[in-house]
């Protein structure tokens, strides 16, 4: 029995979420191989080889894989995956993009965003925006799975010494090509792995007002997120959206500022350890999930918080 | 060009679901059902492309129970020209749905298939990608912008780090993200007109596809509830609690 884990990276460094996928792989059991596909991604393969529990790293370094185009990656993974019983990827926009394609190529089901491993065939996953947890069992010989990173504590990044093998498989479908990319640049921690997240909602009023959140975030070393309403209103970019259809976060501390607490937003943050809500409406549903609630005007409370940290 | 828009009947997004006492699933008796919000966005995008003169015909398709005709009528009230229901009362899963859609694609030969990126009930986010794989089409998932050009389509995708634009050869599969557009409401005259638009009913057997579920649901449970919290009276109290009680700052 063996597990293939697809590494998430930007061609330079391994994304921490892969360590969580490795933790899920470890629970499934068996030998773990990591597949690194990209361009100039040798350093990523070296990094993956050091992760705890990895026995082998396969590195497919080619132009065709530079931008993680699903058409090419899926064919590669389907071919390499022939030798494995479980194929795991992170439930990121990269994993969600290619994993169902791999499953369809292999004529097997795909199991999305698992939050628990029961055994090699049985997994738990949230449905209905996290309002229900389904235990699902898959009868297929081979299982293609995406893993919710925040549900698994990552394995150690150091300590392993797996071998790295170069893979000469080039899959270039010619069906799609990369045009360009606009990536958000921020010195703050990444939203899905930050220890503290402060999110603003429609109550922030406009994009400039997010400045007061950034100030608090920088004092606490926190990442800044947002509700969909704040993103839709153009206050902040889409990559900051937390929720059912945005990013799933589970930090030690989540502060919701001027956010009402719609179920779609709660789906993205209710597994946080401690939740703080600041809202001027004492009836706001966000208070029902908050460990600490403060009924206040955020334009007074947030600057005061800033001054007291 | 012709566009195919698969739509799904789901629980209305405002409804908070309850898990059944016997843990066999969620209670869908007497709850409000609606078109999946991402599918509404898919229909809207197709209609806008038709208004721009890029698209000539929009075919909506759903796989599911007879009642899904309601959502197909809604799609036609919003601007779809005709629709197809693949009627089944069996449990269906993304791979089976993608196989049924592939059979429809082979009959209809659309140049683009626009689907929602995920259905808000099962949150799978799979069907479009699977259909693309089965038909050998390229895919533009999580689209926030779609521009059709000669023989190709440019899709801007919402990815974790920001936005990525890819170019796909047609025919192609596109799945919609929330910011692609804001769906219109159906007007009363259009709702009336939709009643007369053609709605074909087929069965999975007509399509000759095997839609047997590969995944069984062992049980469905309510997630652990959070314990009730406390209200604090001031910023000072909040800071004190976060430092000394919760110990998170
Ligand atoms: C298919 C679908 C998917 C969705 N996915 C997501 C998702 O992933 N993430 C997400 O967040 N939403 C999502 N939504 C949207 C969701 O339903 C809500 O509309 C959204 O979360 C509301 O954002 P909000 O709380 O910022 O805004 P509102 O609900 O408008 O709340 C604003 C809050 O700010 C408070 N406020 C205003 N001024 C102040 C002030 N000066 N001081 C203090 N408080 C103030 C108000 O009291 C209010 O509670 C989705 C919706 C659909 C249909
Ligand atoms: C406990 C449980 C019990 C279930 N029982 C039943 C049952 O008895 N009967 C039943 O019908 N389903 C049942 N389902 C639902 C069924 O499993 C889903 O329809 C299937 O898994 C599709 O997943 P998804 O909607 O999350 O797909 P996603 O991949 O998230 O959907 C993305 C897009 O694909 C398209 N799409 C998805 N489904 C359809 C469809 N049916 N027709 C046309 N387009 C579609 C839409 O454009 C949609 O926006 C059950 C699910 C659960 C969790």
Automatic annotation (TrEMBL), chain B:
PANTHER family: ELECTRON TRANSFER FLAVOPROTEIN BETA-SUBUNIT, ELECTRON TRANSFER FLAVOPROTEIN SUBUNIT BETA
Domain Electron transfer flavoprotein alpha/beta-subunit N-terminal: 23-211
Organism: Alloalcanivorax venustensis ISO4
UniProt KW Transport keyword: yes
Cross-referenced PROSITE patterns: ETF_BETA
SUPFAM superfamilies for this protein: Adenine nucleotide alpha hydrolases-like
Keywords assigned: Electron transport, Transport
Taxonomy, superkingdom: Bacteria
Protein name: Electron transfer flavoprotein subunit beta
Protein family membership: Belongs to the ETF beta-subunit/FixA family.
